[in-house]
Each structure stands twice: as structure tokens, then as C-alpha cells.
Amino acid sequence: MRILVVSDTHGDLYTLKRAIASQPAAEIIIHCGDGSREVDEIMLEYTDKKVIAVRGNCDLASTLPSTETVKLNGKTLFITHGHLYHAKYTTYNLVCAAREQKADILLFGHTHCALSEYDDGLYIMNPGSCHGYGATYGYIDITDRGDIVTNILSVK
């Protein structure tokens, strides 16, 4: 199973669609906040894909949740934007929250800085900002055997 992970699109639907087009095998799109309008658009346009999204600090009128914990292909993902956990200063609070949820994968945004790490059983990913010049996104592959592969790419 391939999962496309984006964040911080800030109104840039064009770049988001380019990221989606670059990963046609992705069955699921996860948006880690600051793009609730774009989430609404892609849910209408890409009906063949499951879309999971959380609210960011710039999604003021959004009714999206602040966090989501989902199980995909046998793995638990903890998804948040990051602002409520002070992500610009440290990942410590995020990691603690993910571990409380018994997550295998932590996904967050907010900092606009792409990050892919592994810490004692927890995969940690911030796909960066899928907006404008230098836009990035991530993907996660979860195999049927339960293996996890993460990658960060630039939008072409």
C-alpha cells in the first residue's frame, strides 16, 4: 500500500495536484494541515483515493480534527499538524503523543521542513511544505509483510 503524505499547501492546489499525479499508485492521501480548502477539492476530484486530513493552525474555519489515529495495512499512524505540540522547537512532544497512541508512524507538518527519521520503533515524517518553489511531499509504503519504507521527494 502506498500513502502520499502532504502538508502546508496554503492554497496551492496546482502543486498539490502535481504531487498527486507523480504518485499514481498511492491509494491514500494524508494531508497534515494548513490546506483544508485543498482537501475539500481533492476529495471531490480524486474519488478513487481515500483522503485523511487534520486541521492546521491556518485552517481557522475548518471542522477537521486536530489529530487522527488510523490503522492502515496493520500499522497505526498518528497524524497531526504539529502546532499544538510545539513542533517548530522540538519533536519530543509529538513523539510522546505518538507513543501514547502506540503508533508505528508519526506524521506532522507545520515547520515546512521535510524530515524522515526512525526512532526506536517509530517512523517519523514531516513531508515539508507542498507549496510553491521547492515544494516537497512524502510517501510511505507499507508492505503486506508489514515492512515500512518512507521517502521525501521534491515536486517536479
- Major beta-sheet overview: 5 strands, mixed
The SSE string, one letter per element, is: EHEHEEEHEEEEE
Radius of gyration, CA atoms, in whole angstroms? 14 Å
Q: What percent strand? A: 25-35%
Helix content: 10-25%
- Looking across the biggest beta sheet, what order are the strands in? 3-2-1-9-10
Structural class: alpha/beta
- The total strand number stands at 10
The span between the termini is 23 Å
What coarse outline follows from CA principal-axis ratios?
globular
| Count of DSSP-assigned helices | 3
The residue ranges in which pLDDT falls below 50 over 5 or more consecutive positions are: none
Overall residue-averaged pLDDT value: 98
Short note summarizing the structure:
Helix content is 19%, strand content 35%. It is of the alpha/beta class. The two termini are 23 Å apart.
Secondary-structure blueprint:
Layout: E1 2-6, H1 13-22, E2 26-31, H2 36-45, E3 50-53, E4 67-72, E5 75-80, H3 92-100, E6 105-107, E7 115-119, E8 122-126, E9 136-142, E10 148-154
Parallel strand pairs: 1-2, 2-3, 5-6, 6-8
Antiparallel strand pairs: 1-9, 4-5, 7-8, 9-10
Description:
Helices cover 19% and strands 35% of the residues. It has helices at residues 13-22, 36-45, 92-100; strands at residues 2-6, 26-31, 50-53, 67-72, 75-80, 105-107, 115-119, 122-126, 136-142, 148-154. Strands 3-2-1-9-10 form a five-stranded mixed β-sheet, with helices on one face. Strand 1 (2-6), helix 1 (13-22) and strand 2 form a beta-alpha-beta unit. The longest helix has 10 residues, at 13-22. The chain is globular and about 35 Å long.
